[in-house]
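Service request form, structural biology core

Requester: graduate student, group of Dr. S.
Request type: structure prediction, single chain
Budget code: on file
Notes: please return the result as C-alpha coordinates.

Sequence provided:
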Amino acid sequence: MARSVTKDMTAGSPRKLILQFGVPLFLGMLFQQFYNMMDTMIVGRFLGVDALAAVGATGSVNFMVIGFCMGVCNGFAIPVAQQFGAKDYHALRKYVANSVWLAAAFAAVMTVTVCVLCRQILLWMNTPADIIDGSYQYIFVIFLGIPVTYLYNLLSGVIRSLGDSKSPLVFLVISSILNIVLDFVLILAFSMGVSGAAWATVISQAASGVACLAYMARRFEMLKMTKEEWGVDLGCMATLCNMGIPMGLQYSITAIGSVILQTAVNTLGSLYVAAVAAGTKISMFFCCPFDALGSTMATYAGQNVGAGKLGRVSQGMRSTCAMGLAYAVAACLVLILFGEKIALLFVDASETEVLRNVGRFLTANSLFYFPLALVNIVRFTIQGLGFSRFAILAGVCEMAARALVGMGLVPVFGYGAACLASPAAWVLADLFLIPAYIHVMRKLRRTIGADAGVTET
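Core staff response, request fulfilled:
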Protein backbone atom coordinates (compact mmCIF):
# COMPACT_ATOMS: atom_id res chain seq x y z
CA MET A 1 0.00 0.00 0.00
CA ALA A 2 1.08 3.62 -0.60
CA ARG A 3 1.53 4.37 3.07
CA SER A 4 3.73 7.38 2.35
CA VAL A 5 0.79 9.42 1.07
CA THR A 6 -1.60 8.57 3.91
CA LYS A 7 -1.54 9.73 7.51
CA ASP A 8 -2.79 7.74 10.49
CA MET A 9 -4.17 10.32 12.94
CA THR A 10 -4.93 7.79 15.67
CA ALA A 11 -1.44 7.95 17.21
CA GLY A 12 0.90 10.79 18.07
CA SER A 13 0.43 14.35 19.30
CA PRO A 14 -3.08 15.58 18.41
CA ARG A 15 -1.91 19.20 18.19
CA LYS A 16 0.93 18.37 15.81
CA LEU A 17 -1.25 16.10 13.69
CA ILE A 18 -3.97 18.73 13.42
CA LEU A 19 -1.45 21.38 12.39
CA GLN A 20 0.31 19.09 9.90
CA PHE A 21 -3.00 18.12 8.34
CA GLY A 22 -4.74 21.48 8.70
CA VAL A 23 -2.08 23.80 7.27
CA PRO A 24 -2.12 22.29 3.74
CA LEU A 25 -5.91 22.17 3.94
CA PHE A 26 -5.97 25.84 4.93
CA LEU A 27 -3.63 26.78 2.10
CA GLY A 28 -5.83 24.88 -0.33
CA MET A 29 -8.94 26.69 0.86
CA LEU A 30 -7.02 29.96 0.75
CA PHE A 31 -6.16 29.40 -2.89
CA GLN A 32 -9.76 28.40 -3.59
CA GLN A 33 -11.00 31.64 -2.06
CA PHE A 34 -8.20 33.50 -3.80
CA TYR A 35 -9.41 32.55 -7.24
CA ASN A 36 -13.00 33.21 -6.15
CA MET A 37 -11.85 36.67 -5.11
CA MET A 38 -10.03 37.11 -8.40
CA ASP A 39 -13.30 36.43 -10.21
CA THR A 40 -14.95 39.14 -8.16
CA MET A 41 -12.02 41.55 -8.47
CA ILE A 42 -11.81 41.22 -12.24
CA VAL A 43 -15.57 41.51 -12.62
CA GLY A 44 -15.78 44.53 -10.32
CA ARG A 45 -12.76 46.37 -11.67
CA PHE A 46 -13.18 45.65 -15.40
CA LEU A 47 -16.94 45.17 -15.83
CA GLY A 48 -18.21 47.63 -13.21
CA VAL A 49 -20.40 47.78 -10.09
CA ASP A 50 -23.50 46.46 -11.87
CA ALA A 51 -21.64 43.34 -12.98
CA LEU A 52 -20.27 42.93 -9.45
CA ALA A 53 -23.79 43.17 -8.09
CA ALA A 54 -25.03 40.67 -10.69
CA VAL A 55 -22.51 38.06 -9.54
CA GLY A 56 -23.07 38.94 -5.88
CA ALA A 57 -26.83 38.52 -6.18
CA THR A 58 -26.28 34.84 -7.00
CA GLY A 59 -24.10 34.16 -3.97
CA SER A 60 -26.76 32.72 -1.68
CA VAL A 61 -28.46 30.49 -4.25
CA ASN A 62 -25.02 29.41 -5.46
CA PHE A 63 -24.14 28.38 -1.90
CA MET A 64 -27.48 26.62 -1.48
CA VAL A 65 -26.91 24.36 -4.49
CA ILE A 66 -23.12 24.02 -4.68
CA GLY A 67 -22.95 23.83 -0.88
CA PHE A 68 -25.24 20.80 -0.99
CA CYS A 69 -22.83 19.11 -3.43
CA MET A 70 -19.86 19.85 -1.18
CA GLY A 71 -21.67 18.75 1.96
CA VAL A 72 -22.74 15.45 0.42
CA CYS A 73 -19.17 14.71 -0.68
CA ASN A 74 -17.79 15.60 2.75
CA GLY A 75 -20.33 13.26 4.30
CA PHE A 76 -19.40 10.45 1.92
CA ALA A 77 -15.78 10.77 3.07
CA ILE A 78 -16.62 10.16 6.75
CA PRO A 79 -17.23 6.37 6.51
CA VAL A 80 -14.03 6.17 4.46
CA ALA A 81 -12.08 7.90 7.26
CA GLN A 82 -13.70 5.66 9.87
CA GLN A 83 -12.79 2.48 7.98
CA PHE A 84 -9.26 3.78 7.46
CA GLY A 85 -8.99 4.31 11.21
CA ALA A 86 -10.32 0.80 11.81
CA LYS A 87 -7.87 -0.63 9.19
CA ASP A 88 -10.73 -2.30 7.28
CA TYR A 89 -9.57 -1.59 3.73
CA HIS A 90 -12.08 -3.90 2.03
CA ALA A 91 -14.98 -1.95 3.55
CA LEU A 92 -13.16 1.30 2.73
CA ARG A 93 -13.05 0.41 -0.97
CA LYS A 94 -16.73 -0.54 -1.02
CA TYR A 95 -17.65 2.84 0.47
CA VAL A 96 -15.53 4.67 -2.10
CA ALA A 97 -17.09 2.75 -5.00
CA ASN A 98 -20.65 3.27 -3.83
CA SER A 99 -20.01 6.97 -3.21
CA VAL A 100 -19.05 7.25 -6.90
CA TRP A 101 -22.37 5.76 -8.01
CA LEU A 102 -24.34 7.99 -5.67
CA ALA A 103 -22.44 11.15 -6.66
CA ALA A 104 -23.06 10.46 -10.36
CA ALA A 105 -26.80 10.06 -9.76
CA PHE A 106 -27.04 13.17 -7.58
CA ALA A 107 -25.08 15.25 -10.11
CA ALA A 108 -27.33 14.26 -13.04
CA VAL A 109 -30.59 15.02 -11.22
CA MET A 110 -29.40 18.28 -9.70
CA THR A 111 -27.89 19.68 -12.92
CA VAL A 112 -31.08 19.23 -14.92
CA THR A 113 -33.35 20.52 -12.13
CA VAL A 114 -31.53 23.71 -11.18
CA CYS A 115 -30.68 24.70 -14.77
CA VAL A 116 -34.37 24.50 -15.72
CA LEU A 117 -35.42 26.55 -12.67
CA CYS A 118 -32.49 28.99 -12.72
CA ARG A 119 -34.18 32.18 -14.00
CA GLN A 120 -37.32 31.56 -11.99
CA ILE A 121 -35.27 31.31 -8.80
CA LEU A 122 -33.71 34.71 -9.52
CA LEU A 123 -37.18 36.18 -10.06
CA TRP A 124 -38.39 34.71 -6.76
CA MET A 125 -35.44 36.42 -5.08
CA ASN A 126 -36.48 39.87 -6.35
CA THR A 127 -33.19 40.25 -8.21
CA PRO A 128 -33.04 43.88 -9.42
CA ALA A 129 -34.10 44.28 -13.07
CA ASP A 130 -30.86 46.06 -14.00
CA ILE A 131 -28.71 43.05 -13.04
CA ILE A 132 -30.93 39.96 -13.46
CA ASP A 133 -29.65 39.12 -16.96
CA GLY A 134 -26.06 39.18 -15.75
CA SER A 135 -26.97 37.09 -12.72
CA TYR A 136 -28.63 34.49 -14.93
CA GLN A 137 -25.68 34.32 -17.33
CA TYR A 138 -23.32 33.71 -14.42
CA ILE A 139 -25.25 31.23 -12.30
CA PHE A 140 -26.52 29.12 -15.22
CA VAL A 141 -22.94 28.27 -16.20
CA ILE A 142 -22.01 27.53 -12.57
CA PHE A 143 -24.95 25.11 -12.36
CA LEU A 144 -23.90 23.43 -15.60
CA GLY A 145 -20.66 22.63 -13.77
CA ILE A 146 -22.32 20.66 -10.97
CA PRO A 147 -20.90 17.32 -12.24
CA VAL A 148 -17.32 18.62 -11.98
CA THR A 149 -18.12 20.04 -8.54
CA TYR A 150 -19.03 16.52 -7.45
CA LEU A 151 -15.96 15.08 -9.18
CA TYR A 152 -13.47 17.31 -7.41
CA ASN A 153 -15.09 17.37 -3.97
CA LEU A 154 -15.69 13.63 -3.83
CA LEU A 155 -12.17 12.69 -4.85
CA SER A 156 -10.43 15.31 -2.72
CA GLY A 157 -12.61 14.25 0.23
CA VAL A 158 -11.51 10.64 -0.16
CA ILE A 159 -7.85 11.69 -0.39
CA ARG A 160 -8.17 13.76 2.80
CA SER A 161 -9.99 10.96 4.61
CA LEU A 162 -6.85 8.86 4.11
CA GLY A 163 -4.81 11.53 5.87
CA ASP A 164 -3.35 13.22 2.76
CA SER A 165 -4.18 16.93 2.81
CA LYS A 166 -1.14 18.05 0.81
CA SER A 167 -2.04 16.63 -2.60
CA PRO A 168 -5.42 18.45 -2.85
CA LEU A 169 -3.48 21.64 -2.07
CA VAL A 170 -1.25 21.11 -5.11
CA PHE A 171 -4.25 20.54 -7.36
CA LEU A 172 -5.99 23.65 -6.00
CA VAL A 173 -2.93 25.79 -6.60
CA ILE A 174 -2.84 24.62 -10.22
CA SER A 175 -6.60 25.17 -10.49
CA SER A 176 -6.30 28.67 -9.01
CA ILE A 177 -3.62 29.72 -11.48
CA LEU A 178 -5.64 28.29 -14.36
CA ASN A 179 -8.78 30.08 -13.12
CA ILE A 180 -7.06 33.45 -12.98
CA VAL A 181 -5.58 33.04 -16.46
CA LEU A 182 -8.96 32.01 -17.85
CA ASP A 183 -10.62 35.00 -16.14
CA PHE A 184 -8.43 37.41 -18.07
CA VAL A 185 -8.69 35.47 -21.31
CA LEU A 186 -12.46 34.92 -21.28
CA ILE A 187 -13.50 38.27 -19.77
CA LEU A 188 -10.99 40.59 -21.41
CA ALA A 189 -9.79 38.86 -24.58
CA PHE A 190 -13.07 37.18 -25.56
CA SER A 191 -15.42 39.76 -23.97
CA MET A 192 -17.63 37.06 -22.43
CA GLY A 193 -18.64 39.24 -19.48
CA VAL A 194 -19.78 37.59 -16.25
CA SER A 195 -20.33 34.25 -17.99
CA GLY A 196 -16.58 34.23 -18.71
CA ALA A 197 -15.87 34.29 -14.96
CA ALA A 198 -18.27 31.38 -14.48
CA TRP A 199 -16.70 29.30 -17.26
CA ALA A 200 -13.25 29.97 -15.80
CA THR A 201 -14.41 28.54 -12.47
CA VAL A 202 -16.01 25.45 -14.01
CA ILE A 203 -13.08 24.64 -16.31
CA SER A 204 -10.47 25.06 -13.57
CA GLN A 205 -12.44 22.86 -11.17
CA ALA A 206 -12.78 20.18 -13.84
CA ALA A 207 -9.01 20.24 -14.28
CA SER A 208 -8.41 19.80 -10.53
CA GLY A 209 -10.93 16.94 -10.41
CA VAL A 210 -9.21 15.09 -13.26
CA ALA A 211 -5.85 15.66 -11.55
CA CYS A 212 -7.22 14.11 -8.33
CA LEU A 213 -8.46 11.09 -10.26
CA ALA A 214 -5.12 10.52 -11.98
CA TYR A 215 -3.24 10.92 -8.70
CA MET A 216 -5.47 8.45 -6.85
CA ALA A 217 -5.13 5.86 -9.60
CA ARG A 218 -1.34 6.12 -9.47
CA ARG A 219 -0.59 6.47 -5.76
CA PHE A 220 -3.24 4.71 -3.65
CA GLU A 221 -2.80 0.95 -3.96
CA MET A 222 -5.40 0.41 -1.24
CA LEU A 223 -8.05 1.88 -3.55
CA LYS A 224 -7.53 -0.66 -6.35
CA MET A 225 -10.88 -2.44 -6.36
CA THR A 226 -12.10 -5.82 -7.41
CA LYS A 227 -15.21 -6.25 -9.53
CA GLU A 228 -17.13 -7.29 -6.42
CA GLU A 229 -16.07 -4.14 -4.55
CA TRP A 230 -17.28 -1.99 -7.46
CA GLY A 231 -20.74 -3.53 -7.18
CA VAL A 232 -23.73 -1.64 -5.80
CA ASP A 233 -24.17 -2.33 -2.08
CA LEU A 234 -27.42 -1.00 -0.66
CA GLY A 235 -26.09 -1.17 2.89
CA CYS A 236 -23.10 0.97 2.00
CA MET A 237 -25.33 3.38 0.09
CA ALA A 238 -27.66 3.70 3.06
CA THR A 239 -24.74 4.53 5.35
CA LEU A 240 -23.32 7.02 2.84
CA CYS A 241 -26.69 8.73 2.40
CA ASN A 242 -27.15 8.79 6.16
CA MET A 243 -23.88 10.72 6.40
CA GLY A 244 -23.89 12.72 3.17
CA ILE A 245 -27.47 13.91 2.75
CA PRO A 246 -27.71 15.49 6.23
CA MET A 247 -24.41 17.30 5.63
CA GLY A 248 -25.61 18.49 2.23
CA LEU A 249 -28.94 19.59 3.67
CA GLN A 250 -27.11 21.41 6.43
CA TYR A 251 -25.43 23.60 3.79
CA SER A 252 -28.65 24.03 1.82
CA ILE A 253 -30.86 24.73 4.83
CA THR A 254 -28.32 27.27 6.04
CA ALA A 255 -28.36 28.80 2.57
CA ILE A 256 -32.14 29.10 2.55
CA GLY A 257 -31.73 31.70 5.26
CA SER A 258 -29.08 33.39 3.11
CA VAL A 259 -31.47 33.37 0.13
CA ILE A 260 -34.16 35.04 2.25
CA LEU A 261 -31.62 37.57 3.48
CA GLN A 262 -30.34 38.19 -0.06
CA THR A 263 -33.91 38.75 -1.22
CA ALA A 264 -34.27 41.43 1.46
CA VAL A 265 -30.93 43.03 0.53
CA ASN A 266 -31.97 43.05 -3.15
CA THR A 267 -34.84 45.37 -2.25
CA LEU A 268 -32.31 47.93 -0.94
CA GLY A 269 -30.79 48.41 -4.41
CA SER A 270 -27.78 47.31 -6.43
CA LEU A 271 -25.28 49.44 -4.46
CA TYR A 272 -26.05 47.53 -1.27
CA VAL A 273 -26.00 44.25 -3.18
CA ALA A 274 -22.51 45.14 -4.43
CA ALA A 275 -21.35 46.01 -0.89
CA VAL A 276 -22.59 42.69 0.49
CA ALA A 277 -20.98 40.84 -2.44
CA ALA A 278 -17.56 42.42 -1.86
CA GLY A 279 -17.83 42.12 1.93
CA THR A 280 -18.80 38.45 1.71
CA LYS A 281 -15.88 37.63 -0.58
CA ILE A 282 -13.39 39.32 1.76
CA SER A 283 -14.92 37.68 4.82
CA MET A 284 -14.84 34.23 3.20
CA PHE A 285 -11.16 34.73 2.43
CA PHE A 286 -10.38 35.60 6.04
CA CYS A 287 -12.51 32.70 7.32
CA CYS A 288 -10.51 29.99 5.51
CA PRO A 289 -8.71 28.95 8.74
CA PHE A 290 -12.05 28.21 10.41
CA ASP A 291 -13.09 26.01 7.49
CA ALA A 292 -9.71 24.26 7.57
CA LEU A 293 -9.92 23.58 11.30
CA GLY A 294 -13.42 22.19 10.88
CA SER A 295 -12.53 19.91 7.97
CA THR A 296 -9.42 18.73 9.81
CA MET A 297 -11.50 17.76 12.82
CA ALA A 298 -13.92 15.80 10.61
CA THR A 299 -11.07 13.56 9.42
CA TYR A 300 -9.33 13.50 12.82
CA ALA A 301 -12.52 12.63 14.70
CA GLY A 302 -13.55 10.08 12.06
CA GLN A 303 -10.26 8.18 12.23
CA ASN A 304 -10.11 8.25 16.02
CA VAL A 305 -13.70 7.17 16.63
CA GLY A 306 -13.06 4.35 14.15
CA ALA A 307 -10.09 3.34 16.32
CA GLY A 308 -12.13 3.76 19.52
CA LYS A 309 -9.99 6.63 20.87
CA LEU A 310 -12.44 9.21 22.19
CA GLY A 311 -9.94 10.82 24.54
CA ARG A 312 -7.94 11.97 21.55
CA VAL A 313 -11.06 13.53 20.05
CA SER A 314 -11.56 15.69 23.16
CA GLN A 315 -7.93 16.70 23.17
CA GLY A 316 -8.07 17.63 19.50
CA MET A 317 -11.19 19.70 20.13
CA ARG A 318 -9.44 21.75 22.81
CA SER A 319 -6.43 22.39 20.59
CA THR A 320 -8.48 23.52 17.59
CA CYS A 321 -10.66 25.83 19.71
CA ALA A 322 -7.54 27.54 21.07
CA MET A 323 -6.20 27.99 17.52
CA GLY A 324 -9.56 29.33 16.38
CA LEU A 325 -9.72 31.91 19.16
CA ALA A 326 -6.20 33.22 18.48
CA TYR A 327 -6.87 33.63 14.77
CA ALA A 328 -10.33 35.16 15.31
CA VAL A 329 -8.86 37.99 17.38
CA ALA A 330 -6.13 38.70 14.82
CA ALA A 331 -8.52 38.66 11.85
CA CYS A 332 -10.99 40.94 13.63
CA LEU A 333 -8.31 43.56 14.26
CA VAL A 334 -7.14 43.50 10.64
CA LEU A 335 -10.64 43.86 9.18
CA ILE A 336 -11.71 46.62 11.56
CA LEU A 337 -8.58 48.62 10.77
CA PHE A 338 -8.16 47.89 7.05
CA GLY A 339 -11.50 46.53 5.79
CA GLU A 340 -12.34 49.51 3.58
CA LYS A 341 -8.84 49.55 2.10
CA ILE A 342 -9.07 45.84 1.25
CA ALA A 343 -12.39 46.56 -0.47
CA LEU A 344 -10.50 48.71 -2.98
CA LEU A 345 -9.45 45.44 -4.60
CA PHE A 346 -13.04 45.05 -5.78
CA VAL A 347 -14.44 48.56 -6.09
CA ASP A 348 -13.08 51.77 -7.58
CA ALA A 349 -12.10 54.46 -5.05
CA SER A 350 -14.82 56.74 -6.42
CA GLU A 351 -17.52 54.36 -5.10
CA THR A 352 -17.29 55.82 -1.60
CA GLU A 353 -20.73 54.67 -0.44
CA VAL A 354 -20.06 51.07 -1.44
CA LEU A 355 -16.66 51.13 0.27
CA ARG A 356 -18.13 52.51 3.48
CA ASN A 357 -20.81 49.83 3.52
CA VAL A 358 -18.27 47.09 2.92
CA GLY A 359 -16.38 48.35 5.98
CA ARG A 360 -19.55 48.22 8.09
CA PHE A 361 -20.25 44.68 6.93
CA LEU A 362 -16.73 43.45 7.73
CA THR A 363 -16.65 45.05 11.18
CA ALA A 364 -19.99 43.54 12.20
CA ASN A 365 -19.00 40.07 11.00
CA SER A 366 -15.43 39.96 12.28
CA LEU A 367 -16.48 40.81 15.83
CA PHE A 368 -18.19 37.41 15.90
CA TYR A 369 -15.49 35.30 14.26
CA PHE A 370 -14.87 33.14 17.32
CA PRO A 371 -18.52 31.97 17.40
CA LEU A 372 -18.02 31.16 13.70
CA ALA A 373 -14.88 29.19 14.56
CA LEU A 374 -16.89 27.15 17.06
CA VAL A 375 -19.63 26.49 14.50
CA ASN A 376 -17.09 24.95 12.11
CA ILE A 377 -15.03 23.05 14.66
CA VAL A 378 -17.88 21.60 16.70
CA ARG A 379 -20.16 20.80 13.75
CA PHE A 380 -17.48 19.00 11.73
CA THR A 381 -16.31 17.10 14.80
CA ILE A 382 -19.85 15.86 15.43
CA GLN A 383 -20.10 14.84 11.78
CA GLY A 384 -16.77 13.02 11.92
CA LEU A 385 -18.03 11.11 14.96
CA GLY A 386 -20.88 9.82 12.81
CA PHE A 387 -23.79 12.02 13.96
CA SER A 388 -24.25 14.06 10.80
CA ARG A 389 -27.99 14.55 11.35
CA PHE A 390 -27.18 17.10 14.02
CA ALA A 391 -25.78 19.21 11.16
CA ILE A 392 -29.30 19.64 9.81
CA LEU A 393 -30.54 21.03 13.12
CA ALA A 394 -27.57 23.39 13.31
CA GLY A 395 -28.39 24.49 9.76
CA VAL A 396 -31.99 25.11 10.81
CA CYS A 397 -30.72 27.40 13.57
CA GLU A 398 -28.65 29.41 11.09
CA MET A 399 -31.51 29.53 8.60
CA ALA A 400 -33.97 30.72 11.25
CA ALA A 401 -31.66 33.53 12.36
CA ARG A 402 -30.96 34.81 8.85
CA ALA A 403 -34.60 34.49 7.82
CA LEU A 404 -35.74 36.41 10.89
CA VAL A 405 -33.29 39.21 10.16
CA GLY A 406 -34.14 39.22 6.45
CA MET A 407 -37.91 39.23 6.80
CA GLY A 408 -38.30 41.09 10.07
CA LEU A 409 -35.37 43.45 10.61
CA VAL A 410 -33.94 44.47 7.22
CA PRO A 411 -37.25 46.04 6.06
CA VAL A 412 -37.27 48.12 9.28
CA PHE A 413 -33.60 48.85 10.01
CA GLY A 414 -32.12 48.47 6.54
CA TYR A 415 -28.52 47.60 5.74
CA GLY A 416 -27.31 47.69 9.35
CA ALA A 417 -29.55 44.74 10.19
CA ALA A 418 -28.25 42.81 7.18
CA CYS A 419 -24.70 43.19 8.49
CA LEU A 420 -25.68 41.40 11.72
CA ALA A 421 -27.53 38.48 10.11
CA SER A 422 -24.58 36.09 9.94
CA PRO A 423 -23.36 36.83 13.49
CA ALA A 424 -26.87 36.08 14.77
CA ALA A 425 -26.85 32.81 12.82
CA TRP A 426 -23.48 31.75 14.24
CA VAL A 427 -24.45 32.45 17.84
CA LEU A 428 -27.74 30.57 17.54
CA ALA A 429 -26.01 27.58 15.92
CA ASP A 430 -23.47 27.47 18.77
CA LEU A 431 -26.25 27.42 21.34
CA PHE A 432 -27.36 24.16 19.74
CA LEU A 433 -24.03 22.61 18.72
CA ILE A 434 -22.13 22.83 22.01
CA PRO A 435 -24.76 20.89 24.02
CA ALA A 436 -25.09 18.49 21.06
CA TYR A 437 -21.34 17.77 21.15
CA ILE A 438 -21.48 17.06 24.89
CA HIS A 439 -24.42 14.70 24.33
CA VAL A 440 -22.66 12.86 21.48
CA MET A 441 -19.45 12.35 23.46
CA ARG A 442 -21.35 11.02 26.47
CA LYS A 443 -23.24 8.61 24.24
CA LEU A 444 -20.06 7.37 22.58
CA ARG A 445 -18.29 6.92 25.90
CA ARG A 446 -21.10 4.67 27.05
CA THR A 447 -20.81 2.70 23.80
CA ILE A 448 -17.04 2.59 23.29
CA GLY A 449 -15.72 3.14 26.80
CA ALA A 450 -12.69 5.04 28.06
CA ASP A 451 -9.36 4.98 26.24
CA ALA A 452 -5.80 6.06 26.90
CA GLY A 453 -5.54 8.61 24.10
CA VAL A 454 -6.25 11.53 26.42
CA THR A 455 -2.82 11.29 27.99
CA GLU A 456 -0.94 12.02 24.75
CA THR A 457 0.42 15.51 24.14
